[in-house]
């Protein structure tokens, strides 16, 4: 390179740091288990973003060592594991950080109050229904806003509704 731009040494550092960071992160994720990066709540999303940021900093900054990046990866994954353990052992705490799923459509009818509260448009629900290959809203038993923000579509004429036991349903709770 001439005059301006990164030196060969800087480029080699970036390449080596990228390869090492990649393998270190893969090893740590495998060590922490399959759910280490599951986006099942806000914490999983935050950890995923933070891991990406830590990895980018470790790769692009000559001032951050692989050991420092590895420590950051480990701390973030340990926090994720800690919250997963808390959720498993103390389910009541889960509600504080991870709201229960809620119905936004039941028996083919939109639940406007829930959709407004969660800022979900009818088009979003219709798109979720279409993605399941269903062409009539009336054929849908329920659409559930899951804790992770996704929409689940349930279609069954002969459903016992057992999949809805943990779903907040104002109709069911008022009976």
Describe what you observe in this structure.
With 175 residues, this protein is of the alpha+beta class. The protein has 2 domains: 8-95; 100-173, 2-Layer Sandwich (CRO Repressor), CATH 3.30.240. Helix content is 54%, strand content 9%. The chain is built from 7 helices and 4 strands, in the order ααααββααββα. The chain is elongated.
Low-confidence stretches: none
Within the largest sheet, what's the order of strands?
Answer: 2-1-3-4
Number of helices: 7
Mean pLDDT: 84
Amino-to-carboxy terminus distance: 75 Å
Structural class: alpha+beta
Largest sheet: 4 strands, antiparallel
| Helix and strand sequence | HHHHEEHHEEH
Domain module count: 2
What's the alpha carbon Rg, rounded to whole Å?
A: 23 Å
**Strand proportion:** 5-15%
Report the helical percentage.
40-55%
> What would the principal axes of the Cα set say about the shape?
elongated
Total beta strands: 4
């Amino acid at each position: 390179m001439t005059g301006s731009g990164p030196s060969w040494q800087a480029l080699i550092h970036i390449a080596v740091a990228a390869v090492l960071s990649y393998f270190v992160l893969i090893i740590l994720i495998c060590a922490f288990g399959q759910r280490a990066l599951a986006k099942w709540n806000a914490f999983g999303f935050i950890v995923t973003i933070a891991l990406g940021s830590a990895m980018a900093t470790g790769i692009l900054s000559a001032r951050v060592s692989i050991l420092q990046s590895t420590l950051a990866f480990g701390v973030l994954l340990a926090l994720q594991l800690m919250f997963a353990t808390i959720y498993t052992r103390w389910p009541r705490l889960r509600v504080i950080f991870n709201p229960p799923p809620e119905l936004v459509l039941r028996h083919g009818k939109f639940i406007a109050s829930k959709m407004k509260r969660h800022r979900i448009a009818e088009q979003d629900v219709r798109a979720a229904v279409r993605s399941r290959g269903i062409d009539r809203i009336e054929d849908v038993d329920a659409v559930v806003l899951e804790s992770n923000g996704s929409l689940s579509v349930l279609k069954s004429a002969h459903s016992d509704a057992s999949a809805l036991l943990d779903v907040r349903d104002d109709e069911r709770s008022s009976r």
